[in-house]
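Pipeline run #58 for the internal structure catalog. This entry was flagged by the ingest filter as a single-chain record with no existing model, so it goes straight to prediction. Upstream metadata was stripped on purpose; only the residue string is passed forward. Reviewer on rotation: M.T. Logging verbosity set to normal.
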Amino acid sequence: MNNKSGDGGGRSLPTPNPTDLQNLVSANRILYKYGVVDGFGHVSLRHPQSADHFLLSRNLAPARVTVEDIFIHDFSGEIVEATAANPYLERFLHAEIYKARPEVMAIVHSHANTVIPFGVVKQQPLRPLWHMAGFLKKNVPIFDIRDHAGDGTDLLITDTKLGAALASDMGDAPVVLMRGHGATIVGKNLPEVCFRAIYTQLNADIQLKALAVGDITYLTELEATAAAENIGGQVNRAWNLWCEEVNSNFEE
């Protein structure tokens, strides 16, 4: 990562803190270890010293990301450094969500297979059924790219218009499902967004299994709210463990 980066308008951007960069590397590894991402998917962090920029790896499998692979992007979705690095195709979803939601500080986009059914079967919404997923308080919104770009797309968010449409359909929710594609999750920091991404996938897996058994008693909205507040305050307990796991045991 360069020590100083220009934003294209002559302004010099501050260098991200090394701890923030390492945490973003750790987030990539954690999400890979827990099956949220595989060779595809990505996680970003709003630039802690420049709110209208974000940090995201170049186009690389998440498990292979290092500090040197992370670049500053602007809200047009472009890397601001003078570099030949190849960016992710769907960097625009990060840019437009950060632009629309100032409170969001981290974003995960994944193709986790357990969430796919809930994005294509409208009669069965993804709902919280255990205390670890209380943040899924309401029925999770579903983004259907066909509603915005018609038939024949590749279902990817590859420009600012589609990124803005996704952000609009997501509203103020923590998670949006993407029909035939995956999910995008937001949080106020990397520990929270990783927690939400992992437990969204686990809730989906448990819900699929429970549906095969019989009728489900879901969390009420009050239960979900209380659980989200309580468990959400303990996210660092899991984050510290996950970081220790991936940074001590991960095979380069």
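catalog note: The chain has a mean pLDDT of 93.
catalog note: DSSP finds eight helices and nine strands in the chain.
status: ready for reviewer M.T.
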